[in-house]
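FAQ: What does a ligand-bound record look like?

Like this one, built around alpha-D-glucopyranose:
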Amino acid sequence: MKPLHILSVASEIFPLIKTGGLADVAGALPAALAPLGVRVVTLVPGYPAVIAALETARRIAAIDMLMGAPASLLGGRAAGLDLLVIDAPHLFDRPGNPYLDADGRDWPDNGERFAALAQVAALIGGGLVAKYHPALIHAHDWQAALTPAYLRYAGGATPPVVLTIHNLAFQGRFPRSLLGPIGLPDESFTLDGVEYYGEIGFLKAGILFADAITTVSPSYAAEIATPAGGMGLGGLLAGRAADLVGILNGIDTQVWDPAQDRLLPHRFSAEHPDDRTRDKAALQSAFALDVVPDAPLFGVVSRLSEQKGLDLLLDALPGLCAEGAQLVLLGTGDPWLQQGFAAAADRYPGQVGCIFAYDEPTAHLIQAGSDALLVPSRFEPCGLTQLCALRYGAIPVVARTGGLADSVIDANEAALRAGVATGIVFSPIDRAGLASALRRTIAAYRDAPAWRAMQHNGMAADVSWARSAQRYADLYRLLIER
Ligand code: ADP
Ligand code: GLC
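The answer part, i.e. the structure of the complex:
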């Protein structure tokens, strides 16, 4: 089969720069698509971490003017990824988080910065780089969503664009006054263009102009095309239902492999899940918990935000501790949640431990050493930590929403009888729902054969990219042939 050349456009990519699952997906999909004859080059902003990681940087195109200053395009490889990097120091030469300044506030020029990402993608689609003519552009989230709008207003033949929505809560809305500075024509500011409630809507424009829209799980695809789950864009998404599809994320099963994981103090395989006990003890020590082998140990690895439902967990903590269970939490984000968990750790020494940091090795240790991994999200487009949990033998305890519902099989009676349960899935997503899920989990933990069966099923589940990469490849081919 002739190889397909795809330009992926993403504002973060693992392992170079990451704030969440978007980076994991952008980093893992290219390798999963390669065996299917799809060659992916990823366009990313030239943050310092990206430029520093480039192994072989070549200047392959000049851009006369990009949001007020000249810029250029570098080509190279880093961490096994083929990259095109926008070298524009006035926009991207800023350390740390790609979206926030040192005080945790959005950079005031994020509109220009990510319009630039999309504009360069569109320029590449229009032939900026000699000898590189991608057959399709795959744009991720609001940061890349203006790509099809720029292509549309530039006119001429353009490659098809797939837009993937990783999280509808982040829409990229900016004042109308930005229209001229980011190089969009006045006539684009209409309902059939980039206008969105009197502002410029990056994601809105992407939804309108992309040839196909994907999101990261089938359930989330259904949820977002409704008034309740559409976050203001439900009507528009419903109107594009024929072009909207949910493709469940996978995880990189080389990065997440308990038998090979160099970040773990003790490695283990699906054949010997009992070897996890040594990681459990290491985890308890790392979080200054009592090293009790048979206390049910719950883990959380998460951004601390409203979306993740962790305030519900704060409410449920007294009950959990009264049962003799333990909790470890690794996360960063909203100060009010951080304060709440810090207070809980003070109140339940030896039972609740928190680390408020972004830390890969600790994330791996939690997956390896926790008995259960908690994801009580109010909504969750896909969620990756429950997939890691399945692979690492931690029982996922998840809210029935989005990709959580699509990736965990609840241990109800029918599933237990059929021998297919992999975790606990709860609804309604509220205090009482979570409290009862925690009680069910603790009861299941104390039923060793049932627990082991769930662990076995989870560790055998296919959480790789194989199936979903095939679906992306099929979609690309369909659009290119059309
Ligand atoms: P989201 O993208 O909404 O934050 P996902 O579950 O899709 O949620 O992806 C989160 C990713 O970030 C996972 O790979 C998870 O392991 C990682 N992660 C989240 N918080 C931390 C943290 N504090 N330290 C290390 N990794 C983290
Ligand atoms: C977003 C979503 C998360 C999803 C990730 C990768 O950050 O919040 O559910 O797993 O993107 O698609």
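Follow-up question: can I read anything off the structure? Yes, for example: The pocket of alpha-D-glucopyranose (ligand 2) is lined by residues 20-22, 25, 166-167, 216, 249, 380-384, 403 (CB under 6 Å).
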